Amino acid sequence: MNKFLLKIQNLIVKGNEKEILKGINFQMERGEVRAILGPNASGKSTLAHAILGNPKYKIIKGKIFFEGEKITNFPPEKRVDLGITLVWQSPPAIKGVKLSQLLGKISRKKIKIKEGKELLEREINLDFSGGEKKVSELIQVLSLKPKLVILDEIDSGLDIKKVEMVAETIKKELVDKKVSVLIITHWGQILGYLKPDFVNVMINGEIICQEKDYKKVLKTIKKYGYEKCRECPFLAG
To answer: Long-range contacts made by residues 114-119, C-beta under 8 angstroms, separation at least 24?
Structure first.
C-alpha cells in the first residue's frame, strides 16, 4: 500500500489564462488532518479545484497522485469515484430538487443524520442560511463514502456557535473515522476544534512552509500578518 493518500508534484495551474499555482509540492497520509492557511487570492481554492479536476483550471505542469495512482488527467467524476470529495465554499441553489432526492441518487451508504434532518425535504440550498449550506454539503459528502474530504472555507460566514456545530459533525463523521481531511481557510477559527496534524501556509500560489503546531502558526499570523510569513518567524521559535 502506498504511504501517501495524496501526493502533488510541481503543480502549475492556470485559471482565466493567469498562472495561479506556481509549482506546488504537497502530500497527505491516510487519516491525516491538514490545513492550508493563506490570505484571499493566494491560490487555496484553486488547489482544491485542481485536486478535484475542475476543467476551469488548466494544469500546465506537474502530477497528482491518489493512492499511488496518477490522476492528473482524470475527469472529476472518476476522482469522486476514487474517493475525493469537496465541500464547496459557495454551493449553488438547485430549485425543484430536494436534498433527499439528491441523496437517493448519489448515496453509496446509509447515513444517520443528526444535524440537518430538517433540510432533507427542502430544495437544495434554496433560502438556506450559511450554516445550513455547510451542513447540507457535509451530508452529501458523507453519503459518498469519501477517502479524502476537502473543506473549502467551511468556517467562512459562520458565527461561533455554527462553527462549533459544523466542526463537531466533521470530527465525529470524518476525523474520528480516520477519513483524511484537508481544511482550506484564511482565518483558521475551525482549527481549534479539529486540531490538524500539519498546517501549510500558501501565499501567491506557493506553499511556503509547513508546521505541526497550528496554534503557533495562528499566533504568528495574528501578530505579524501573512506578509511576514515568507520569513517564517514561527520556525525560528
So the answer is: 114/169, 115/165, 115/169
Helix spans in the chain (H): 44-52, 76-82, 99-106, 130-142, 160-173, 191-194, 214-224
Q: Which residues contact 230 (CB under 8 A, 6 or more apart)?
A: 203, 208
Is the pTM higher than 0.85? The answer reads: yes
- Which grid cell sits at 191? 482549527
The structural domains of the chain, with segments of one domain joined by +, span 4-236
Per-residue pLDDT of the chain (237 residues; tens, 9 = 90+): 677 999 999 999 999 899 999 999 999 999 999 999 999 999 999 999 999 999 999 999 999 999 999 999 999 999 999 999 999 888 889 999 999 999 988 887 776 666 678 899 999 999 998 888 988 999 999 899 899 999 999 988 888 888 998 999 899 989 999 999 999 998 788 999 999 999 999 999 999 888 999 998 898 888 888 877 777 644 444
Q: Is the dihedral of CA 191, 196, 201, 205 positive or negative?
A: negative
Between CA 80 and CA 211 the distance in angstroms is 29
Class in CATH terms, 4-236: alpha beta
Residue 191 to residue 186: CA distance in whole angstroms: 11
